[in-house]
Specification:
The chain is of the alpha+beta class and 226 residues long. The protein has a single domain, classed as Ribosomal Protein L22, Chain A. It has helices at residues 28-34, 39-58, 118-122, 128-137, 143-162; strands at 11-15, 80-87, 90-97, 101-110, 171-176, 181-186, 192-193, 196-197, 200-207, 211-219. Strands 4-10-9-6-5 form a five-stranded antiparallel beta sheet, covered by helices on one side. A three-stranded antiparallel beta sheet has the order 1-3-2. It has a two-stranded antiparallel ribbon with strand order 7-8. The longest helix has 20 residues, at 39-58. It starts with 10 loop residues before the first strand and ends in a 7-residue tail after the last strand.
C-alpha cells in the first residue's frame, strides 16, 4: 500500500505479518536494544528492520544496524533518508538516497476511530469542523485517524529536515478527500530547503477497509527534474 503514495525514487518494502524471509535477522546491537521489550514490540521492531534492510540492499547498501536514537527515531546509513511504520496487520519501510530525497515520512493506522479523548490532544480546534465535513462526504474513512496518521508522517519528515520534534498542535492539516492529498501548514518556523524557509509540507493518503496509510516526500533540492 505505501508504494502507491510515494514517488518512484523512494524504495519501499512492506509486510502484513511478522514471518521472516530467508536471510532476515537482527544484528547484535539491535538485539541488545530490544532485549527487554515485550514480545509484540520485539516482533514489530524486528520486522520493520528486516524490511528496511531489504530496501537498502536494493540500493546497494550492505547490512548494518538500524538503531533508534533516544527519541526512537531510526538512524539511517550516510546518504540515506528513510521512515518506518507498523500497526496491526501492516509493517512498512521507505528509503531513498539523499541525492534524490530530502525527507520521507510514512505512517500506517487501522481504519478505525481514535480512542476517546485522543482527538482533542492531537488536533487543533480549526481542524475538527473539517473532519465532520469529511465524514459526511466519505463515511467509509475514519478521518480522525487519518488526521493523526498525516501528522505522524509530517513529523517524521520534519525530524529528518530539522533534527527537532514537532508537536501535534504545531502543524495544521487540510485533507483533500477527492485526490488523496493533504497539506500541513507549519505553525512554527520551518527548516531551510532549496534556499527558502519551508512553510508547508504536502503528502498523500490511501484508504482500504482495514488500513489507512499516509506519506510525505520532499525531493532533494539538487535532484534532477523531469
Amino acid at each position: 500500500m505505501i508504494e502507491l503514495i510515494l514517488p518512484s525514487v523512494v524504495t519501499t518494502e512492506a509486510a502484513y505479518d511478522d514471518r521472516p524471509r530467508p536471510g532476515d535477522r537482527l544484528l547484535p546491537p539491535e538485539r541488545e536494544v530490544i532485549a527487554t521489550a515485550v514480545a509484540p514490540r520485539q516482533r514489530e521492531f524486528t520486522t520493520v528492520r528486516h524490511l528496511a534492510r531489504r530496501a537498502l540492499r536494493r540500493l546497494g547498501h550492505p547490512d548494518a544496524p538500524l538503531l533508534p536514537n533516544r527519541r526512537g527515531v531510526p538512524q539511517w546509513p550516510p546518504g540515506i533518508v528513510g521512515s518506518l511504520t507498523h500497526c496491526a496487520g501492516y509493517r512498512a519501510a521507505a528509503v531513498s538516497p539523499t541525492c534524490l530525497s530530502a525527507a520521507v515520512g510514512i505512517d500506517a493506522e487501522p481504519n478505525a476511530a481514535l480512542p476517546d479523548g485522543i482527538l482533542d490532544a492531537v488536533s487543533l480546534p480549526s481542524e475538527r469542523p473539517h473532519l465532520v465535513a469529511l465524514a459526511a462526504h466519505r463515511p467509509d474513512v475514519h478521518w480522525d485517524r487519518l488526521l493523526f496518521s498525516a501528522k505522524e508522517s509530517v513529523f517524521k519528515a520534519w525530524h529528518l529536515l530539522s533534527r527537532r520534534e514537532l508537536g501535534f498542535t504545531e502543524a495544521e492539516i487540510t485533507i483533500d478527500p477527492s485526490d488523496g492529498t493533504f497539506a500541513a501548514r507549519l505553525l512554527v518556523p520551518g527548516p531551510d530547503w532549496a534556499g527558502h524557509r519551508l512553510t508547508t509540507l504536502t503528502g498523500r493518503w490511501h484508504s482500504t477497509h482495514p488500513l489507512l496509510t499516509t506519506a510525505v516526500h520532499l525531493p532533494s533540492p539538487t535532484a534532477p527534474t523531469t
